[in-house]
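My current task is to audit a protein record that another person submitted. I have pasted the whole thing underneath without changing anything:
***
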Amino acid sequence: MGCLNIEFQDLGKVRIELFAQDAPKNVTNVEGLVRKGFYDGLTIHRVIPGFVIQGGDPKGNGTGGLNYTVPAEIRRKHTRGAVAMARTGDSANPKKESSSCQFYICLKDLPNLDAAGYTVIGQVTEGMPVVDKIAQAPTNAHDRPLKPVVMTKVTLD
């Protein structure tokens, strides 16, 4: 079982156990991006207290991605600390395929997202207080933190 480690500038570290057995295609995709340094320097672009924090967008505004999707692997629940892949809505994406790179971390149990069908790829095992601190960041009308929340280094072990 692999782990993803995210260092946030000025905030601390978050460790995520990856669920390769339940979401092998999505986990393999994220691991490949991490190995290439893709996430280093990207931001958390969406903060909704009581819901999720979201990052991994190369544009930093929620509209970016790579030119592919990853098949849905919907097997795990959205519990507090669950890490899942973002995706476009059902009308444009009836197969519920995952974003190539955007992910979110649940701030509480979210059964509504289970029903909606998103792929959970991991679980925060260390650093949930860091996630909670990020969730308190002041945001603009688009839920974007006023001060950038930067993922300075993302690694695997």
User: Anything to note?
Assistant: The chain has a mean pLDDT of 97. The first helix runs from residue 24 to 35.
